[in-house]
């Protein structure tokens, strides 16, 4: 049997990949082989290709959904035939990546959906589809990397614990970039799983949508006084900040908006920023800075950007608790974002990567079938 795959050309130039017939990967004992059905695009997919983070022969893409074909001998909790959403570190090493007929994934990157939750017959039509419960292969493909990112941030960096939920009822989290794919999931997890009050910074046009997902307040980040508005709403009780955009300017805004919090504050971001990236008040010593990199959830060191990045302390313990023990019971309460569904076929990855790289899709996840 052959395996059709979007294989990176390794040269950093569009179209980035070719569709090739490769062999079905052998399953390492700690991994899972998924027969893929649908895929989703993430900004990291084109970044890995454009910045040549992996070799020729790496497979493009991160997010997928499908049916488990084979389970490595050392993996428990998953079986052949399970319906899953999963993600892989695409564009980074040969043979690994989502956009292929048979993909290898790690259990910590895999969400098992109850068979009753996913309508396996339903194919979401090409075009725009609204946000809704995760009940199709398209919806299931749109959430895995985002949920891993939120899980790592909240469980390991922000150190949120579901057993402390009652203590979060009067505490705020500020999610900068509430309408990003990551932010849309972060708002829901903050609200539904941890019971936090949520302030989201997002464009005004997304305000009603984000409120429907659980944001208590949505502030338009393009308002000149956005930080002042957030400070007023938070009234000294914004203890957690999550910056899904992670420009120096947005991380600065996160810092400034939480500057009046009376107590320890944790500020997390997704692109390796820290205190030295922004202007801080040296007299304020109660701020801790986090940096989330979802690639680390397997517990392995990764080599992207400036050099080897090891997993942070307690990552596997904190994250696995969230991923395997907490998340499953909340999955039916979570919604995927609006979808932009492309034509079926791995070739659609080229259109998806271009739309993402050109920043043309807002508050939607680009998905397509294989
Ligand atoms: N470290 C990790 O593990 C990790 C994991 C996932 C993603 N990432 C990175 O995180 C970033 C976000 O990825 P994503 O897939 O979640 O995003 P995305 O869905 O592609 O984000 C699109 C949204 O960004 C919002 N946006 C743009 N500029 C903004 C600003 N200045 N302030 C607030 N919102 C702004 C827009 O919201 P409006 O429509 O409201 O304007 C737009 O709808 C990317 O750089 C990605 O590579 C990192």
From TrEMBL:
Parts forming coiled coils: none
A UniProt-annotated Pfam family: ADH_zinc_N
UniProt xrefs under SMART domains: PKS_ER
GO terms for MF: oxidoreductase activity, acting on NAD(P)H
CDD domains per the UniProt record, alphabetical: enoyl_reductase_like (cd08249)
Domain Enoyl reductase (ER), residue spans: 12-368
InterPro entries: ADH-like_C, ADH-like_N, ER, GroES-like_sf, NAD(P)-bd_dom_sf, Trans-enoyl_RdTase-like
PANTHER family: HYPOTHETICAL OXIDOREDUCTASE (EUROFUNG) (PTHR45348), ZINC-TYPE ALCOHOL DEHYDROGENASE-LIKE PROTEIN C2E1P3.01 (PTHR45348:SF2)
Protein name (Swiss-Prot/TrEMBL): Enoyl reductase (ER) domain-containing protein
Species: [Candida] railenensis
